[in-house]
Give the backbone structure.
Amino acid sequence: MRYRLSRAWPLDHGRELAPSGTMIDSNSDDDWSRLARGLTPPWDVQALDDECYQLLLRAYPGHRHLMGPPPPPSGPSKQEETEPEPNKSTKSSTTHSRTPQ
């Protein structure tokens, strides 16, 4: 689960204050992410993945109208992985031909 703080957030029972703009990642071992592990993020964070967005919807059902939009899907869809785009070429557009000397 990943999210970015929109304001300072007291952690560790108020002993630490994570600054606004801090990115928290539940899979990371940085100090802020470790201190936030297991806590429900504040309602006004920027959800960076769907896991966080869904948690916010469950934890704060009365705040849905104040939350930002869901995060964009991460990575290409299965269809995008299997179907090449029609306008993209697999070769470089700058091909140099050499004439024999």
Remarks:
- The helical segments are 31-36, 50-59, 78-82.
- Strands lie at 2-4, 9-11, 16-18, 23-25, 46-47.
- The mean pLDDT is 83.
